[in-house]
Amino acid sequence: MTLFDTALPARASRDLSDDAVHVWRLPYRRGEGRAPLRRLLAAYLDTTSDRVQFHDGEHGRPVLRDAPTALDFNWSHSGDIALVAIARGLPQLGIDIEVSRPRPRALALAERFFAIDEHTRIAALPDTQRTDAFLRLWTAKEAVLKGLGEGLRYGLHRVAFRLVEGEPVAHAFDGPVGPPGAWQLHPLARPDFTACLAWRGAPRRVHWLHMTES
């Protein structure tokens, strides 16, 4: 199981090399908006959170505006957890998280949004395994599409995966997302959430981090 190392953002920011990706787990409260993201990025930019400004891309993806240092990031939140991926020189970077909870409509959603083969494979699983399989595929698809800078309207069925020993493996991609082999995937499943980190480019080291107070 992947463990999150406890760290201070300001200290960790100095260790962000060009061959690494930092992924932070942050507490998230409904109504906070982008405040947790702004505070974390401020440490990497060596500035104050009120000076971290965003503009939204074509599909609503936040991008830094007038940042003193080039920094690529993506974030996702679900329930009371947020995950933030940070890197340098990695513009096609995406992450997605879904907290653990009952998903009675998982099979119906897979039939509506997934590739036919994906839905068929989920339907063949025992009821107790369907939600886990659905979330692993859903978060992998979302992470890739967020890295691409597209939303759901791109079509989740156009980025198809297979589950190999429970882990999502890119199988068939269609359109500008490019070939499956161009993407790196780092899925993470824990008792309280399922997530996936994705980027287009060469392999990098991934550091999973959890913020400490001091």
Structural class: alpha+beta
Q: How many separate helices?
A: 5
Order of helices and strands: EHEHEEEEEHHHEEEEE
- Tell me the number of strands: 12
Percent helix range = 25-40%
Strand content: 35-45%
Total domain count: 1
- Cα(first) to Cα(last) distance is 26 Å
Q: How is the biggest beta sheet arranged? A: 5 strands, mixed
Please, what is the CATH homologous superfamily?
4'-phosphopantetheinyl transferase domain
Pfam families: ACPS (PF01648)
Family: Belongs to the P-Pant transferase superfamily. Gsp/Sfp/HetI/AcpT family.
GO cellular component, one term: cytosol
GO molecular function: holo-[acyl-carrier-protein] synthase activity; magnesium ion binding
Walk me through this protein's architecture.
GO terms for molecular function: holo-[acyl-carrier-protein] synthase activity; magnesium ion binding. This is 4'-phosphopantetheinyl transferase. There is one protein chain. By secondary structure, this protein is of the alpha+beta class. It has one domain: 4'-phosphopantetheinyl transferase domain (Ribosomal Protein L22, Chain A), CATH 3.90.470. 25% of the residues lie in helices and 36% in strands. It has 5 helices and 12 strands. Strands 1-12-2-6-5 form a 5-stranded mixed beta sheet.
What topology emerges from the helices and strands here?
Blueprint: E1 5-7, H1 9-13, E2 20-27, H2 35-45, E3 53-56, E4 62-65, E5 72-78, E6 81-87, E7 93-99, H3 106-113, H4 116-123, H5 127-148, E8 159-164, E9 167-173, E10 183-190, E11 193-200, E12 205-211
